[in-house]
Amino acid sequence: MTCQALLDDGDEVLIPAPYWVSYPESVKLAGGVPVPITSDLESGFKVTVEDLEAARTDKTKMLIFVSPSNPTGAVYTRNEIAAIGEWALEHGIWVMTDEIYEHLVYGDNEFHSLPVVVPEIADQTVVVNGVAKTYAMTGWRVGWLIAAPHVAKAAGTQISHAASNVANVSQRAALAAVSGSLDAVGEMRTAFDRRRLTMTRMLNAIDGVECLEPAGAFYAFPRVTGLLDRMGIASSLDLASRLLEEAQIAIVPGEAFGAPGYARFSFALGDNDLEEGLRRFRAFAR
């Protein structure tokens, strides 16, 4: 809805990659042009102001900013967010910031909301969020945006014709979730924290796999090019296919996120299943 409300035909949207699979498609549906900005393991899957400036043209309308990130688990620091927000403000670029994983950060990492860090950019920022991740309510399909009144009105008009409204029972459930205690979220975060450390350790023990410790969300995003070369597998897409067929484990290939040579592993599952799946991966990779 944000893209439909803000973009005109030919508007360019900067999208740091790896990105969630829907971002480029949402831009295209609104007539815009997605402009991926590559990041990698060495950069911690983050882009800098210099990266953004190198991609900016007179057609740049919006930046899609995500922290914590799906699929990488990267979390930007307050200073990094401030620099990006001030850059967007200086150049009159809209920012859509996806904060769906705001409560899922680990260790010394902290979540910071871009329009809170740079309040001056609030009127050219759209914050999107929902109940799916923090409250484990993926099937309820409830989300929201926070934006200037004219943007919120335009998005509301669009959604009213596309989906009418969120079902009443879903609205009631979402209100109960966001107005209630976050104690259960803390327990869930503790479990995710334990699993992310286990997953990172087990992935890095496999020859040809390199994995950063994710700082947020509930995904690890290892580089698997060494494994592909060693085993003669053409791509991470082929690796995912073979793992499903031969080891009965499911991963998402990096191609889906604009990052071939990587793969997304989720640690949003039980400890025993997680360890069994990674043991199967290790056995496959021998």
From TrEMBL:
User: Keywords assigned by UniProt?
Assistant: Aminotransferase, Pyridoxal phosphate, Transferase
Q: What one GO molecular function would you report for this record?
A: L-aspartate:2-oxoglutarate aminotransferase activity
EC number(s): the record gives 2.6.1.1
UniProt entry tagged with the keyword Protein transport = no
Q: Which Gene3D superfamilies match?
A: Aspartate Aminotransferase, domain 1 (3.90.1150.10), Type I PLP-dependent aspartate aminotransferase-like (Major domain) (3.40.640.10)
What PROSITE patterns does this protein map onto? AA_TRANSFER_CLASS_1
InterPro entries associated with the record: Aminotransferase_I/II_large (IPR004839), AspAT/PAT-like (IPR050596), NHTrfase_class1_PyrdxlP-BS (IPR004838), PyrdxlP-dep_Trfase (IPR015424), PyrdxlP-dep_Trfase_major (IPR015421), PyrdxlP-dep_Trfase_small (IPR015422)
One Gene Ontology BP term is:
amino acid metabolic process
What region holds the Aminotransferase class I/classII large domain? 3-280
Q: Which cofactor does it need?
A: pyridoxal 5'-phosphate
Pfam families from the xrefs?
A: Aminotran_1_2
Q: Write down the PANTHER family for this protein, in alphabetical order.
A: ASPARTATE AMINOTRANSFERASE
Family under the similarity heading: Belongs to the class-I pyridoxal-phosphate-dependent aminotransferase family.
Protein name listed in UniProt: Aspartate aminotransferase
Q: What are the leading ranks of the lineage?
A: unclassified sequences, metagenomes, ecological metagenomes
